[in-house]
Specification:
13 helices; mainly alpha
Length: 279
Protein backbone atom coordinates (compact mmCIF):
# COMPACT_ATOMS: atom_id res chain seq x y z
CA UNK A 1 0.00 0.00 0.00
CA UNK A 2 1.11 3.55 -0.66
CA UNK A 3 1.00 6.56 1.63
CA UNK A 4 -1.71 8.00 -0.62
CA UNK A 5 -3.91 4.96 -0.02
CA UNK A 6 -3.65 5.18 3.77
CA UNK A 7 -4.46 8.89 3.56
CA UNK A 8 -7.67 7.98 1.70
CA UNK A 9 -8.50 5.42 4.38
CA UNK A 10 -7.80 7.99 7.10
CA UNK A 11 -10.10 10.44 5.33
CA UNK A 12 -12.94 7.91 5.48
CA UNK A 13 -12.15 7.29 9.14
CA UNK A 14 -12.27 11.03 9.94
CA UNK A 15 -15.63 11.36 8.19
CA UNK A 16 -16.93 8.25 9.95
CA UNK A 17 -16.04 9.74 13.33
CA UNK A 18 -17.50 13.11 12.35
CA UNK A 19 -20.86 11.40 11.95
CA UNK A 20 -20.58 9.02 14.90
CA UNK A 21 -19.16 11.60 17.34
CA UNK A 22 -20.30 15.02 16.06
CA UNK A 23 -19.41 16.85 19.30
CA UNK A 24 -15.63 16.35 18.98
CA UNK A 25 -14.74 13.73 16.34
CA UNK A 26 -11.04 14.54 15.94
CA UNK A 27 -10.30 14.38 19.66
CA UNK A 28 -12.07 11.04 20.06
CA UNK A 29 -10.42 9.62 16.93
CA UNK A 30 -7.02 10.72 18.22
CA UNK A 31 -7.67 9.02 21.58
CA UNK A 32 -8.74 5.78 19.89
CA UNK A 33 -5.69 5.71 17.62
CA UNK A 34 -3.39 6.43 20.56
CA UNK A 35 -5.03 3.60 22.53
CA UNK A 36 -4.45 1.19 19.65
CA UNK A 37 -0.84 2.36 19.30
CA UNK A 38 -0.15 2.00 23.01
CA UNK A 39 -1.80 -1.38 23.56
CA UNK A 40 -1.44 -3.21 20.28
CA UNK A 41 0.53 -1.78 17.36
CA UNK A 42 3.29 0.59 18.62
CA UNK A 43 2.95 2.60 15.39
CA UNK A 44 0.29 4.90 13.99
CA UNK A 45 -0.10 3.48 10.47
CA UNK A 46 -1.14 -0.12 11.39
CA UNK A 47 -3.31 1.30 14.19
CA UNK A 48 -5.20 3.42 11.65
CA UNK A 49 -5.68 0.44 9.34
CA UNK A 50 -6.90 -1.74 12.21
CA UNK A 51 -9.34 0.89 13.47
CA UNK A 52 -10.62 1.55 9.94
CA UNK A 53 -11.12 -2.19 9.36
CA UNK A 54 -13.07 -2.49 12.60
CA UNK A 55 -15.26 0.46 11.57
CA UNK A 56 -16.21 -1.31 8.32
CA UNK A 57 -14.00 0.71 5.96
CA UNK A 58 -12.90 -1.29 2.92
CA UNK A 59 -9.15 -2.01 2.74
CA UNK A 60 -8.58 -4.14 -0.39
CA UNK A 61 -4.95 -5.00 0.37
CA UNK A 62 -5.74 -6.29 3.86
CA UNK A 63 -8.74 -8.25 2.54
CA UNK A 64 -6.59 -9.78 -0.21
CA UNK A 65 -3.87 -10.87 2.23
CA UNK A 66 -6.42 -12.41 4.62
CA UNK A 67 -7.97 -14.35 1.74
CA UNK A 68 -4.49 -15.71 0.98
CA UNK A 69 -4.37 -17.21 4.46
CA UNK A 70 -2.72 -14.55 6.59
CA UNK A 71 -4.14 -13.51 9.95
CA UNK A 72 -5.63 -10.03 10.24
CA UNK A 73 -2.62 -8.86 12.25
CA UNK A 74 -0.15 -10.21 9.69
CA UNK A 75 -2.14 -8.64 6.87
CA UNK A 76 -2.25 -5.23 8.53
CA UNK A 77 1.47 -5.31 9.35
CA UNK A 78 2.37 -6.23 5.77
CA UNK A 79 0.00 -3.67 4.26
CA UNK A 80 1.37 -0.87 6.45
CA UNK A 81 5.04 -1.49 5.61
CA UNK A 82 6.98 1.46 4.18
CA UNK A 83 4.06 3.85 4.48
CA UNK A 84 3.85 7.12 6.35
CA UNK A 85 0.63 8.90 7.27
CA UNK A 86 1.07 12.66 6.91
CA UNK A 87 -2.08 14.77 7.05
CA UNK A 88 -2.31 18.52 7.54
CA UNK A 89 -5.02 20.31 9.51
CA UNK A 90 -6.10 22.01 6.26
CA UNK A 91 -6.79 18.63 4.64
CA UNK A 92 -8.83 17.44 7.62
CA UNK A 93 -10.91 20.64 7.59
CA UNK A 94 -11.51 20.13 3.86
CA UNK A 95 -12.69 16.54 4.45
CA UNK A 96 -15.13 17.65 7.14
CA UNK A 97 -16.44 20.39 4.88
CA UNK A 98 -16.96 17.87 2.06
CA UNK A 99 -18.91 15.66 4.45
CA UNK A 100 -21.25 18.50 5.41
CA UNK A 101 -22.06 19.07 1.74
CA UNK A 102 -22.89 15.41 1.01
CA UNK A 103 -26.41 14.01 0.82
CA UNK A 104 -28.09 12.68 4.00
CA UNK A 105 -28.37 9.19 2.46
CA UNK A 106 -24.57 8.95 2.22
CA UNK A 107 -24.29 9.97 5.87
CA UNK A 108 -26.88 7.41 6.98
CA UNK A 109 -25.04 4.59 5.22
CA UNK A 110 -21.65 5.57 6.60
CA UNK A 111 -22.71 5.58 10.25
CA UNK A 112 -23.89 1.96 10.08
CA UNK A 113 -20.88 -0.07 8.89
CA UNK A 114 -21.46 -3.79 8.44
CA UNK A 115 -18.72 -5.44 10.46
CA UNK A 116 -20.38 -8.46 12.12
CA UNK A 117 -19.94 -10.79 9.15
CA UNK A 118 -16.29 -9.74 8.74
CA UNK A 119 -15.64 -10.48 12.41
CA UNK A 120 -17.17 -13.96 12.19
CA UNK A 121 -15.12 -14.77 9.10
CA UNK A 122 -11.69 -13.43 9.95
CA UNK A 123 -11.31 -12.47 13.59
CA UNK A 124 -9.68 -14.97 15.96
CA UNK A 125 -10.37 -14.96 19.70
CA UNK A 126 -8.61 -12.07 21.37
CA UNK A 127 -6.30 -12.31 24.34
CA UNK A 128 -8.03 -12.23 27.67
CA UNK A 129 -8.13 -8.73 29.08
CA UNK A 130 -8.18 -6.97 25.69
CA UNK A 131 -11.77 -7.70 24.72
CA UNK A 132 -13.03 -4.38 26.03
CA UNK A 133 -10.52 -2.42 23.96
CA UNK A 134 -10.34 -4.57 20.83
CA UNK A 135 -13.51 -6.68 20.89
CA UNK A 136 -15.65 -6.52 17.80
CA UNK A 137 -18.08 -5.18 16.81
CA UNK A 138 -17.95 -3.14 20.02
CA UNK A 139 -16.98 0.52 19.69
CA UNK A 140 -13.42 1.42 20.85
CA UNK A 141 -13.09 3.24 24.18
CA UNK A 142 -13.88 6.94 24.27
CA UNK A 143 -10.96 7.59 26.63
CA UNK A 144 -7.48 6.19 27.00
CA UNK A 145 -7.01 3.64 29.79
CA UNK A 146 -5.21 5.13 32.72
CA UNK A 147 -1.63 4.06 33.08
CA UNK A 148 -0.49 3.06 36.57
CA UNK A 149 1.19 5.83 38.56
CA UNK A 150 4.41 3.88 39.33
CA UNK A 151 4.83 2.95 35.66
CA UNK A 152 4.21 6.51 34.52
CA UNK A 153 6.73 7.92 37.01
CA UNK A 154 9.30 5.32 35.93
CA UNK A 155 8.83 6.40 32.32
CA UNK A 156 9.43 10.03 33.28
CA UNK A 157 12.69 8.97 34.96
CA UNK A 158 13.82 6.91 31.96
CA UNK A 159 12.91 9.72 29.57
CA UNK A 160 14.83 12.29 31.63
CA UNK A 161 17.92 10.13 32.16
CA UNK A 162 18.06 9.01 28.53
CA UNK A 163 17.68 12.56 27.27
CA UNK A 164 20.41 13.90 29.58
CA UNK A 165 22.93 11.16 28.76
CA UNK A 166 22.40 11.14 24.99
CA UNK A 167 22.34 14.93 24.82
CA UNK A 168 25.58 15.16 26.80
CA UNK A 169 27.29 13.06 24.11
CA UNK A 170 25.67 14.97 21.24
CA UNK A 171 26.70 18.33 22.71
CA UNK A 172 30.38 17.44 22.23
CA UNK A 173 29.68 16.65 18.58
CA UNK A 174 27.68 19.87 18.23
CA UNK A 175 30.48 21.99 19.73
CA UNK A 176 32.98 20.50 17.27
CA UNK A 177 30.68 21.09 14.28
CA UNK A 178 29.78 24.60 15.46
CA UNK A 179 33.45 25.59 15.78
CA UNK A 180 34.03 24.48 12.19
CA UNK A 181 30.96 26.41 11.01
CA UNK A 182 32.08 29.56 12.82
CA UNK A 183 35.58 29.27 11.33
CA UNK A 184 34.10 28.87 7.85
CA UNK A 185 31.18 31.27 8.05
CA UNK A 186 31.67 33.50 11.12
CA UNK A 187 28.26 34.85 12.26
CA UNK A 188 26.31 32.84 9.68
CA UNK A 189 28.12 29.71 10.81
CA UNK A 190 27.18 30.44 14.43
CA UNK A 191 23.51 30.89 13.47
CA UNK A 192 23.54 27.62 11.52
CA UNK A 193 25.16 25.93 14.51
CA UNK A 194 22.32 26.99 16.83
CA UNK A 195 19.69 25.94 14.27
CA UNK A 196 21.33 22.51 14.16
CA UNK A 197 21.30 22.38 17.97
CA UNK A 198 17.57 23.07 18.16
CA UNK A 199 16.82 20.48 15.46
CA UNK A 200 18.92 17.87 17.31
CA UNK A 201 17.15 18.70 20.61
CA UNK A 202 13.74 18.32 18.98
CA UNK A 203 14.69 15.20 17.03
CA UNK A 204 16.07 13.43 20.09
CA UNK A 205 12.95 14.21 22.10
CA UNK A 206 10.72 12.99 19.24
CA UNK A 207 12.62 9.70 19.21
CA UNK A 208 12.39 9.22 22.99
CA UNK A 209 8.73 10.22 23.11
CA UNK A 210 7.63 7.70 20.49
CA UNK A 211 9.90 5.00 21.97
CA UNK A 212 8.88 5.45 25.62
CA UNK A 213 5.35 6.86 25.39
CA UNK A 214 4.23 5.63 21.92
CA UNK A 215 3.31 9.21 21.01
CA UNK A 216 4.08 10.18 17.41
CA UNK A 217 5.20 13.77 16.84
CA UNK A 218 5.76 15.91 13.76
CA UNK A 219 9.19 15.38 12.19
CA UNK A 220 9.39 18.15 9.59
CA UNK A 221 12.60 20.16 10.13
CA UNK A 222 10.60 23.29 10.97
CA UNK A 223 8.66 21.35 13.61
CA UNK A 224 11.90 19.94 15.05
CA UNK A 225 13.37 23.45 15.13
CA UNK A 226 10.43 24.86 17.11
CA UNK A 227 10.26 21.72 19.25
CA UNK A 228 13.93 21.97 20.19
CA UNK A 229 13.79 25.70 20.93
CA UNK A 230 10.69 25.34 23.11
CA UNK A 231 12.23 22.39 24.96
CA UNK A 232 15.47 24.24 25.64
CA UNK A 233 13.60 27.24 27.07
CA UNK A 234 11.36 24.98 29.18
CA UNK A 235 14.33 23.05 30.59
CA UNK A 236 16.25 26.25 31.39
CA UNK A 237 13.26 27.58 33.35
CA UNK A 238 12.77 24.23 35.11
CA UNK A 239 16.44 24.12 36.16
CA UNK A 240 16.50 27.58 37.77
CA UNK A 241 15.62 26.15 41.24
CA UNK A 242 18.39 23.53 40.90
CA UNK A 243 20.90 26.26 40.01
CA UNK A 244 19.90 28.28 43.09
CA UNK A 245 20.08 25.24 45.38
CA UNK A 246 23.57 24.40 44.07
CA UNK A 247 24.68 27.95 44.83
CA UNK A 248 23.22 27.80 48.33
CA UNK A 249 24.33 24.26 49.26
CA UNK A 250 27.27 23.37 47.01
CA UNK A 251 28.30 19.75 47.53
CA UNK A 252 28.62 16.42 45.76
CA UNK A 253 25.58 15.09 47.64
CA UNK A 254 23.47 18.04 46.47
CA UNK A 255 24.56 17.47 42.87
CA UNK A 256 23.70 13.76 42.99
CA UNK A 257 20.30 14.32 44.62
CA UNK A 258 19.39 17.06 42.14
CA UNK A 259 20.50 14.88 39.22
CA UNK A 260 18.15 12.10 40.31
CA UNK A 261 15.24 14.43 41.10
CA UNK A 262 15.64 16.34 37.85
CA UNK A 263 15.59 13.13 35.82
CA UNK A 264 11.88 12.96 36.70
CA UNK A 265 11.40 16.69 36.09
CA UNK A 266 13.19 16.62 32.72
CA UNK A 267 11.17 13.60 31.61
CA UNK A 268 7.90 15.33 32.56
CA UNK A 269 8.88 18.56 30.79
CA UNK A 270 10.18 16.77 27.68
CA UNK A 271 7.03 14.67 27.29
CA UNK A 272 4.66 17.61 27.67
CA UNK A 273 6.63 19.77 25.24
CA UNK A 274 6.58 16.92 22.72
CA UNK A 275 2.77 16.66 22.99
CA UNK A 276 2.51 20.17 21.53
CA UNK A 277 3.89 18.74 18.26
CA UNK A 278 1.81 15.56 18.45
CA UNK A 279 0.59 14.21 15.10
Amino acid sequence: MSSREIKTIYKELVQNYAMAYPSDPLKILSMHIEAYVRHEWKAKEPAVLDLAWRKGIEIPKVKELIERGKTKREAILEASKNMRLKVSETEVEKWLKELQEEKPTRVEEAVKPIVVERVKTYEKPLEEGKAELFGLPATPPTALPEEGYPRRVTKYFIHGIAYSVIMAVLVFVWVFVSVLLVVVGSLIGLIIGFILLFIVLGGLNCFLTVTIWSISTKTAWTSLLGHGLALLIALIIAHIPAFLINLTVPSLATTIVLFIVYAFVDGFVAKNVAKVWKE
